[in-house]
Structures are given as C-alpha cells and as structure tokens.
Amino acid sequence: xxxxxxxxxxxxxxxxxxxxxxxxxxxxxxxxxxxxxxxxxxxxxxxxxxxxxxxxxxxxxxxxxxxxxxxxxxxxxxxxxxxxxxxxxxxxxxxxxxxxxxxxxxxxxxxxxxxxxxxxxxxxxxxxxxxxxxxxxxxxxxxxxxxxxxxxxxxxxxxxxxxxxxxxxxxxxxxxxxxxxxxxxxxxxxxxxxxxxxxxxxxxxxxxxxxxxxxxxxxxxxxxxxxxxxxxxxxxxxxxxxxxxxxxxxxxxxxxxxxxxxxxxxxxxxxxxxxxxxx
Length: 279
Known about the structure:
Distance between the termini: 11 Å
Radius of gyration: 18 Å
Order of helices and strands: EEHHEEEHEEEEEEEEHEEEHEEEE
Number of strands: 20
Strand content: 35-45%
Number of helices: 5
Oligomer: single chain
Largest sheet: 18 strands, mixed
Shape: globular
C-alpha cells in the first residue's frame, strides 16, 4: 500500500490513493487509527483517502481524524490533497474536491503554496458564552459546510505564554461542553496587530493541540470580520506550525466567501509495511 505524508503549516496527514488501492471504505477508520499513532506508526493528525468522484469533482476526499472518526472537512488537508491531485495528474492547477461538508475549490499558486475556498459558514453565533469550572468565557460558534464542521472561537489574553497544561485542560472541557452537541474544535486566539492574530487549536478527533487548523482559522476570521475587528482581507494567522492567510468576503451580516492560503510540504512518499495493520 503506497502513501504520501504531507503537512500544511504543521497540520500533518497520510494520503492514500484509493482509486488504486481499492480499500473497502469501512476499513479506513481502523487504518487511520493504526497509521496515525505517533512513535508506533507513521504518525499524523489525520488520514485522507482519494476516491472516485460522484458529484462532478475531480476526485473525492474522505477524511479521518487520528482517532478514526470521520471528519466533515479539513482545510489544511484540502490544501495538501489539492497538491496531491495536481502532482498525480488527477486535476489541473484549479481543483474541485468533493468533501463530506460540500465541494471545495482549490488553486495552485506555486509549487508549495495552495489556496482553497473553504465551505461557506452555515451557522454563526457571535454570542455563545460557555462556563467552565465557574468561569465564563466569551465564545462564538461557527459551522462550515453541510453537515457543518463545528468550531468554538474564544479570545484568550496572553495566549503565547499560557500554561500548556492549563490550556489543554480548558480546551478539552470546551471541546466536550454540552453547549456543543456535536463537540467542537476549540480555537483560542489573541489579536497581535492590525489584521493579525495568534492561534492555538484543540482539535476534535485528535483530542489535543495541533500545529494548525485551516477551518478553525477561517472560523476565527469569519467571527472577527463580522465583529469589525479585522478587515477580512489577507488576515494573517500565526500558529505553532507557521502562518496562514484568510480572505473573508462580508455582505452585511453574512460571510459569503472564505479563502485559506498557505504552504504545503511533501514530507515523504513510500510503502506502508506496518505489521500492526490488519486489512
């Protein structure tokens, strides 16, 4: 079984071409759980399978988190799989990728730089406070696509210097908060300048912080643009894995288009020989 290992701003993924491998879809969650284990296998935040399109796209993207749960979409994963599709002759420099949350359109800007149009926000609640251990946190809630990929957006002062363990515990509690029946990716942010912020994301399905989260970054900018705190154009998000840029088109009280631009990295290509993998 052949694979590519890629990352987008530190958000890392294993990619399988299921047009060639012909793996049964029901086996993919277990494959993701096995291969995404760090130190015990290849290690990644998630696994993506390239499948045959059914809605007019160039190909279909099935995404699975590291714990084997299916994901509606993944922004950095979509940027990586757009590059994979282009470099493997599945798409041109403009890509149309079918994801569970809806069609995703991508474009190659340079060898490593890719831009995608994220799924439109289908739910935005700017005022959605949550209480954890008696402390009230101002929170906004965003879902991208349909079915919606859920994000909690929380301003956090002193984010860069915050205690890793305290922030992780808070992220875990908000991720499972009863206010979010589907669970939520928890996006902490702090404004650091004009059209610029620092971000940390506790991801559902990884159950820990990741180095970047594309859909989460888009959700933060959607909220900030509606609140008038950023312009919505070339908004810079800095995080542990690097820098992403978001463009958000606002019409009155709605975000009508959301674009994510950032780097991709082909880490390695090879053959999977993991003896713990049962197919």
